[in-house]
Amino acid sequence: MSESPLLEQAIAGAVRALANRPDLEIVYGSRRPPAEAPSERLTLPRLPHNPKRHRAYRGSADLEALKLLHHDADLMREHRPQQGDAAELFSAFETARYAALGLRSHLGVSANLRAHWGDRAESEAPPSAPQMREQLGLQLWMVRALSGVELTGQAAELADAQGADLAKRFGEIQPQSLASLCERLGDQQAFAEALLDLMHRWELLEEPPEEAADEDQGADPQGADQDGGDPSAGEAEIDGEEEGEQVEVSADLGAQAEVDLSRMQLAEEEDEPQEQHWDGQDGWLENQTDGAVHEGYGVFTDEFDQIARAGELAEETELNQLRKHLDELVRPHQGLIGRLANRLQRLLLAQQHRSWEFDLEEGILNTARLVRVVTDPGAPLSFKRELESPFRDTVFTLLIDCSGSMRGRSMSMAAVCADVLGSTLERCGIRTEVLGFTSRHWKGGDSRKRWEFSGKPPAPGRVSDLLHIVFKGAGDNWRRSRRNLGLMLKEGLLKENVDGEALLWAHERLMRTRCERRILMVLSDGAPVDDSTLNCNHSGYLERHLRQVIRAINERSPVELVAIGIGHDVRSYYRRAVMVTSAEDLGRAMADELYDLFSINRRVA
C-alpha cells in the first residue's frame, strides 16, 4: 500500500476527532461516495504529491473540521447581512472566529493552519489577482486580531495590507470592539450580534441590530450605570467591610477618635454618586507595621478628601467628547501598542495549556503515533487530551499620577496604554483596575483654610484635599469603562500629587480582593509635590512618607510593586522600576514589564 492512502486515512481520523463526528464520511477528490453513504459527508481535495505541502493540506482539513465543530449554517443565514461589503466582512469574520478557536486550543492545529495560510498566500493570491489577495488578507487579518497568532512571510504582509485598508475605510478598530468579539468566540450567536453592532458603527448596515437598540433604550439616561452595572457584583470583594464596623484612627493622622466605616464606603458601592470620605489610611499595611508606615507623617483633616468614579467628575456628554479627543491623540501609536499587547496575550494564553494526557481512546489524534499506524494497520489509533493548568487568579492595578506635570502627551499615552494593555489582561482572565490620584484644589483647598482658621498650628501634616479616582474597578468591564479614561484630559482636573497616600490607597484596595496574585504598577513623572503641605512642613515630608510606604509594601506585603517613571528616574524610590525618556516609549515599557512579570509566573508555576 502506498503512503498516500495511509496518510489520507490518518487525516480523516484527525478530522473526525477534531470535529467530534466519529461517523463522518470523508471523501477525497473525485472519488464516488459509497452507495449507502451516511448523511454526514465531507469532501476534501486529493492529497498533494509534493510532501512539502502536506502540512498545509492538513491545515485545510483542520479548518473544515473546525467549521463542522463550531459553525451553525442556520445561524449564519439568520444573521448574515444582505449588503455586499457587509456580507463579505461577516463571512470573513465568521471563518476567523472558528479558526481562532482552533488556534487557541490546539497547538498542532495552529501549526497546520499557519502552514495552510502561508501556502495559500504564495500559490492562490499572486499580485495579479488583487481580489483574491484582498479576500485572503481580510481573513488573515481577522484571524490574527481574534487569536493573537503570529503570521509570517506573505501571509503577514497580506494581513498588514488589509488591516491598513480597513483602517482607511472605517478608522482604527477600537480595542474594546475586538475584546468584545474575543469574549464571544465560543458563542456564534453572541459573536454575530456583537459583529453586527460593530458593522452598524461602521455604517455598513442600514439599521442597528435589534438587541443593540434595545440595550441603548434601556440604558440609564443619567449614566448612573456607565461604570460597570451593579457595583455590588464587581466591587464587593474590594470594598467588603461590614457596615457599621468601627475602627480606631491613629492620632498621627489627625482624626478624633472613631470613624464609622459606613461613611467611608467607596463611591462605586453607592447607587447615587456622592462625595466619599477617606478609607485608605487604616488597614492591612498599617496593621502589619504596627503603624510604622505612618511614622512622622500626619493629616490635619481628611474631611475634604474624596474618592470618586470618573462619571461623578464629568457629565456624560463631556466624557464622550474627551474620549473622542483621546482617540485622536493616540491613533498614531495604537498599532505599536496593539502589537505589544498581542505579544503579551500570546504569553498568557500559552500558560494555560502546558501538558498532555496520552494513550486515550478518544480525544485529539496523536500524530506522533502515526508511524505505528502506518507500519501496523491493525494497531488502534492513539488519542490525546490537553490538560489545562489553572492560571493563578490575578488582579492587576494600574495607579496613574494625575498631577499637572502629566498634562499633554504623558497623560494621553498613559490613558491609551491603560486601555489597550488592560483590556488584553482582562481578555486573558486577569482582573484589572485603573486608578488615578491628584488633589481637589490648588494650594490646599478647604483643608488649608481650616488649618488657617485653627490658628496655623505648627507641623500640621498634610493640609490639602486629596482626590482619588476610580477609572475602572476590578469588577467592571472595559466596554463600559473605557470612556472614563478620557477624563484624564479634562481641563482643570490635574493638580498636585501626594504619592504616599495614593499608593497606600491602591494597595489597600488590592489587599481586599480575593486572589492568589496581586500586581500594582505605578506611572509617575516626578516626586510628590503639594505646595501647601510642603510650605507647612519640612521639604522632604511627602517624599519621606512615600519611601516608608514603598518599604512597607516591599518588606511586608504579597503585592508585587513595579513603577515606570516618565522622564523621571523612579528607581531611587522603587525596587523594581524603569524610566522612559518620552511618553511614546511608555507602551513598550509597560508591555515589557508585564511580560517579565508573567514570565516569572510561568517559571514559578
CATH superfamily of the largest domain: von Willebrand factor, type A domain
**Topology-level CATH name of the largest domain:** Rossmann fold
Q: Identify low-pLDDT runs.
A: 30-38, 207-281, 601-605
Strand content: 5-15%
Give the helix proportion (percent range): 40-55%
Tally the helices: what do you get? Answer: 23
Structure description:
The chain has 605 residues and is α/β, with parallel strands linked by helices. It has 3 domains: 1-47 and 354-388, no CATH class; 73-217, no CATH class; 263-331 and 391-604, von Willebrand factor, type A domain (Rossmann fold). Helix content is 47%, strand content 13%. It has 23 helices and 14 strands. The chain has helices at residues 3-19, 54-70, 73-79, 84-105, 107-123, 130-147, 153-170, 175-183, 188-201, 210-218, 231-235, 284-288, 310-313, 316-330, 334-350, 370-375, 409-427, 446-453, 478-481, 499-511, 531-536, 541-556, 586-604; strands at 25-28, 41-44, 246-248, 258-260, 306-309, 353-360, 364-365, 383-388, 394-401, 431-439, 466-472, 517-524, 560-566, 577-580. The strands form 4 sheets. A 7-stranded mixed β-sheet has the order 5-11-10-9-12-13-14, sandwiched between helices. The protein has a 3-stranded antiparallel β-sheet with strand order 6-8-7. Strand 9 (394-401), helix 17 and strand 10 form a beta-alpha-beta unit. Helix 4 (84-105) crosses helix 6 and helix 8 packs parallel to helix 17. It is elongated and about 95 Å long.
